[in-house]
Specification:
globular, single chain, alpha+beta, two-stranded antiparallel sheet, 13% strand, four-stranded mixed beta sheet
Length: 164
Protein backbone atom coordinates (compact mmCIF):
# COMPACT_ATOMS: atom_id res chain seq x y z
CA UNK A 1 0.00 0.00 0.00
CA UNK A 2 1.37 3.36 -0.94
CA UNK A 3 0.18 6.92 -0.59
CA UNK A 4 1.38 8.40 -3.86
CA UNK A 5 3.00 7.07 -7.00
CA UNK A 6 5.76 4.43 -6.87
CA UNK A 7 9.18 5.50 -8.04
CA UNK A 8 11.92 3.70 -9.91
CA UNK A 9 12.68 1.84 -6.67
CA UNK A 10 9.76 -0.51 -7.34
CA UNK A 11 11.15 -3.94 -8.16
CA UNK A 12 9.81 -5.96 -11.08
CA UNK A 13 6.99 -8.30 -10.07
CA UNK A 14 5.80 -6.15 -7.16
CA UNK A 15 2.34 -4.67 -7.25
CA UNK A 16 1.56 -1.41 -5.50
CA UNK A 17 -2.01 -0.73 -4.41
CA UNK A 18 -3.02 2.83 -3.53
CA UNK A 19 -4.02 3.58 0.04
CA UNK A 20 -7.64 4.39 0.63
CA UNK A 21 -8.95 7.52 2.29
CA UNK A 22 -9.33 8.12 6.00
CA UNK A 23 -7.22 7.90 9.09
CA UNK A 24 -4.41 5.41 9.55
CA UNK A 25 -6.74 2.95 11.30
CA UNK A 26 -9.08 3.00 8.29
CA UNK A 27 -6.25 2.69 5.77
CA UNK A 28 -4.71 -0.27 7.59
CA UNK A 29 -8.08 -2.02 7.81
CA UNK A 30 -8.64 -1.40 4.09
CA UNK A 31 -5.24 -2.92 3.28
CA UNK A 32 -6.12 -6.15 5.06
CA UNK A 33 -9.53 -6.16 3.35
CA UNK A 34 -7.73 -6.37 -0.02
CA UNK A 35 -5.70 -9.43 1.00
CA UNK A 36 -6.86 -12.89 -0.10
CA UNK A 37 -8.66 -14.43 2.92
CA UNK A 38 -6.73 -17.72 2.94
CA UNK A 39 -3.27 -16.18 2.58
CA UNK A 40 -1.39 -14.63 5.53
CA UNK A 41 -0.85 -10.88 5.22
CA UNK A 42 1.73 -8.76 7.02
CA UNK A 43 1.75 -4.96 7.08
CA UNK A 44 5.07 -3.38 8.02
CA UNK A 45 5.58 0.31 8.76
CA UNK A 46 8.13 2.05 6.61
CA UNK A 47 9.77 3.81 9.55
CA UNK A 48 11.82 0.83 10.78
CA UNK A 49 14.78 0.83 8.39
CA UNK A 50 16.77 -1.50 10.65
CA UNK A 51 14.35 -4.36 9.93
CA UNK A 52 15.96 -7.20 8.01
CA UNK A 53 14.16 -9.89 6.04
CA UNK A 54 15.94 -12.51 8.14
CA UNK A 55 14.11 -11.21 11.23
CA UNK A 56 10.79 -12.14 9.64
CA UNK A 57 11.82 -15.35 7.86
CA UNK A 58 11.65 -17.70 10.87
CA UNK A 59 8.43 -16.48 12.53
CA UNK A 60 6.58 -16.26 9.20
CA UNK A 61 7.86 -19.54 7.72
CA UNK A 62 5.15 -22.07 6.92
CA UNK A 63 6.50 -24.45 9.58
CA UNK A 64 6.19 -21.78 12.30
CA UNK A 65 2.73 -20.51 11.36
CA UNK A 66 0.75 -23.41 12.78
CA UNK A 67 -1.58 -22.24 15.55
CA UNK A 68 -0.69 -18.57 15.03
CA UNK A 69 -3.53 -16.21 14.14
CA UNK A 70 -1.63 -12.93 14.19
CA UNK A 71 1.83 -11.41 14.34
CA UNK A 72 2.51 -8.22 16.26
CA UNK A 73 5.70 -6.13 16.17
CA UNK A 74 5.81 -3.61 19.02
CA UNK A 75 7.59 -0.29 18.68
CA UNK A 76 9.61 1.00 21.61
CA UNK A 77 7.54 4.18 21.72
CA UNK A 78 4.31 2.29 22.48
CA UNK A 79 3.12 1.93 18.90
CA UNK A 80 3.66 -0.98 16.55
CA UNK A 81 5.74 -1.55 13.43
CA UNK A 82 4.07 -4.72 12.13
CA UNK A 83 0.72 -6.44 12.18
CA UNK A 84 0.02 -9.69 10.43
CA UNK A 85 -3.12 -11.79 10.14
CA UNK A 86 -3.05 -15.48 9.22
CA UNK A 87 -6.57 -15.32 7.75
CA UNK A 88 -7.34 -11.67 7.00
CA UNK A 89 -10.88 -10.56 6.36
CA UNK A 90 -12.40 -7.11 6.10
CA UNK A 91 -14.56 -7.75 9.16
CA UNK A 92 -11.64 -8.90 11.32
CA UNK A 93 -9.45 -6.01 10.21
CA UNK A 94 -12.18 -3.51 11.04
CA UNK A 95 -12.79 -5.14 14.44
CA UNK A 96 -9.10 -4.96 15.29
CA UNK A 97 -8.15 -1.57 13.86
CA UNK A 98 -11.04 0.88 13.54
CA UNK A 99 -10.96 3.34 16.41
CA UNK A 100 -7.47 2.39 17.64
CA UNK A 101 -5.79 5.68 18.60
CA UNK A 102 -2.81 5.94 16.25
CA UNK A 103 0.56 7.55 16.94
CA UNK A 104 0.22 7.51 20.72
CA UNK A 105 2.14 5.71 23.44
CA UNK A 106 -0.99 3.53 23.94
CA UNK A 107 -1.50 2.45 20.32
CA UNK A 108 0.25 -0.90 20.72
CA UNK A 109 -1.46 -1.72 24.02
CA UNK A 110 -4.90 -1.01 22.57
CA UNK A 111 -4.18 -3.17 19.53
CA UNK A 112 -2.85 -6.02 21.69
CA UNK A 113 -5.99 -5.86 23.82
CA UNK A 114 -8.14 -6.09 20.69
CA UNK A 115 -6.14 -9.07 19.43
CA UNK A 116 -6.68 -10.78 22.80
CA UNK A 117 -10.38 -9.91 22.94
CA UNK A 118 -10.80 -11.41 19.46
CA UNK A 119 -9.36 -14.66 20.84
CA UNK A 120 -6.38 -14.64 18.49
CA UNK A 121 -3.14 -16.45 19.22
CA UNK A 122 -0.45 -13.82 18.70
CA UNK A 123 3.23 -14.34 17.91
CA UNK A 124 5.08 -11.30 19.16
CA UNK A 125 7.91 -10.09 16.95
CA UNK A 126 10.92 -8.23 18.39
CA UNK A 127 10.48 -4.66 19.58
CA UNK A 128 11.97 -2.09 17.20
CA UNK A 129 12.50 1.64 17.39
CA UNK A 130 10.60 3.46 14.68
CA UNK A 131 11.97 6.68 13.25
CA UNK A 132 9.74 9.55 14.31
CA UNK A 133 12.28 12.15 15.43
CA UNK A 134 15.91 13.12 14.88
CA UNK A 135 16.78 11.39 18.16
CA UNK A 136 15.14 8.14 17.08
CA UNK A 137 16.82 8.42 13.66
CA UNK A 138 20.21 8.71 15.36
CA UNK A 139 19.38 5.73 17.59
CA UNK A 140 18.34 3.54 14.66
CA UNK A 141 21.42 4.55 12.66
CA UNK A 142 23.55 3.46 15.62
CA UNK A 143 21.64 0.18 16.04
CA UNK A 144 21.97 -0.67 12.34
CA UNK A 145 25.22 1.00 11.25
CA UNK A 146 25.61 -0.94 7.99
CA UNK A 147 22.25 0.05 6.47
CA UNK A 148 21.65 2.60 3.73
CA UNK A 149 19.62 4.53 6.28
CA UNK A 150 22.62 4.82 8.61
CA UNK A 151 24.85 5.87 5.70
CA UNK A 152 22.41 8.62 4.78
CA UNK A 153 22.07 9.71 8.41
CA UNK A 154 25.84 9.96 8.79
CA UNK A 155 26.04 12.05 5.61
CA UNK A 156 23.81 14.73 7.10
CA UNK A 157 25.33 17.62 8.94
CA UNK A 158 23.88 17.30 12.43
CA UNK A 159 23.81 20.32 14.73
CA UNK A 160 22.46 19.96 18.24
CA UNK A 161 20.98 16.53 17.41
CA UNK A 162 18.97 17.86 14.45
CA UNK A 163 20.00 17.51 10.78
CA UNK A 164 20.58 20.81 9.03
Amino acid sequence: MLDGEPGDWLLPGWQVVPQGPGGLDERLAAAFALAPPDVPALLVGMDTPQLRAQSLAAPLAAAARGGVDAWYGPATDGGFWALGLARPTAALAQQLLLGVPMSTDRTGAVLLERLSTAGLTVHQLPALTDVDTAASAAEVATLAPHTRFAEQWRSLKVTGGVPS
